[in-house]
Amino acid sequence: MGISAVLNIASSGLQANTKRLATTANNVANAGTPGYNRLETSLTSQPYGGVSASVSPSNGATFTDTSNVDLGSELIDMKTAEIGYKANAAVFETGADLWAVLAT
Predict the structure, then answer these.
(1) pTM, whole model, 2 decimals?
(2) pLDDT tens-digit profile of 22-75?
(3) d(Cα 11, Cα 3) in Å, to the nearest integer?
């Protein structure tokens, strides 16, 4: 595996965690909306080594007078996305540093 592959994998992880955080922010923003059905983000590994994210409505109970958003769960999802983003950013930065060393 080359350094460019490492950078591409880290980049896909950054994009997936960005989508995950955006979905969580959307859920928190709509927590007080009657009838709102929480969205979930699924991460899937790709054959080339990266990861992709897809968003779909949750399979949980749907209420007409409230939403099915649990703010505690959203906080955990937000923290998990933050940790994943930081890890992929560190990998990307290390790969970029290696690229710079090899280019000189």
Answers:
(1) 0.85
(2) 999 999 999 999 989 999 999 999 998 899 999 999 887 777 788 889 999 999
(3) 12
Alpha-carbon gap, residue 17 to 101, rounded angstroms: 28
Q: How far apart are CA 71 and CA 49, in angstroms?
A: 32
Residue 70 DSSP class:
-
3-state secondary structure of 29: helix
C-alpha distance from residue 32 to each of 55, 56, 59, 103 (Å): 20, 19, 19, 53
At 8, list the tokens.
């591409």
For residue 64, what pLDDT is reported?
Answer: 74
Quote the pLDDT of residue 67.
Answer: 86
The three-state secondary structure class of 83 is helix
- Across-strand partners of 42? 54
